[in-house]
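[step 3/7] inverse_fold.run input=structure_tokens len=205
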């Protein structure tokens, strides 16, 4: 694979090489809040170093993805999608695309597409990392996702919609998450509430 839109030395499209560089910069600058997150941060960086195509769906079976958790202004409700392939309630997110200018931009695009909220804005800070294996029958060659996640806030009355990738979208109480995915979503929600709560307390007025 050669040409102006590809990485000549690697065969990886140039857009994905740029996204890999952006992910590395974001991960290197991020201070993990505890040991488990630091371990994943190092593993994400190791994958990026070993695989120029680490953010490309056509790259290694273990590759980086992105996601976003969306809360209401009171931080007591969470907007989730009933993911069609996974068959459970999850945060928004997915694979990178060549048009994404950054990891944060990709998370924003995915969250807007899957929530039907075109004006959704995500905080630029990483809220958490997550690494999880996938069911091969549903996700094809993708074996594991290494997720860089962000968080955002929308009004309770926001007019969300169900996308083709979802079976449903709706609000859940932050302290009463769906049982099948609470173990994954719960820590992310708490991390988002801590981060966004600090931001609101520090804002003037």
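[step 3/7] decode complete -> sequence:
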């Amino acid at each position: 694979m050669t040409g102006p839109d590809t990485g000549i030395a690697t065969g990886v499209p140039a857009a994905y090489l740029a996204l890999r560089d952006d992910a590395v910069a974001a991960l290197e600058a991020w201070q993990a809040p505890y040991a488990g997150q630091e371990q994943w941060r190092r593993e994400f960086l190791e994958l990026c170093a070993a695989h120029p195509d680490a953010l490309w769906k056509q790259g290694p079976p273990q590759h980086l993805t992105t996601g976003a958790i969306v809360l209401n202004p009171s931080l007591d409700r969470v907007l989730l999608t009933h993911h069609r392939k996974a068959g459970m309630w999850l945060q928004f997110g997915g694979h990178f695309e060549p048009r994404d200018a950054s990891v944060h931009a990709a998370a924003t695009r995915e969250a807007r597409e899957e929530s039907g909220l075109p004006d959704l804005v995500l905080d630029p800070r990483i809220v958490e990392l997550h690494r999880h294996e996938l069911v091969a029958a549903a996700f094809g060659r993708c074996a594991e996702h290494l997720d860089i996640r962000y968080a955002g806030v929308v009004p309770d009355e926001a007019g969300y919609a169900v996308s083709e990738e979802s079976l449903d979208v709706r609000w859940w109480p932050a302290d009463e998450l769906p049982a099948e995915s609470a173990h994954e979503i719960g820590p992310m929600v708490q991390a988002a509430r801590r981060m966004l709560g600090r931001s609101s307390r520090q804002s003037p007025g």
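[step 4/7] annotate
The radius of gyration is 17 Å.
The longest strand covers residues 62-71.
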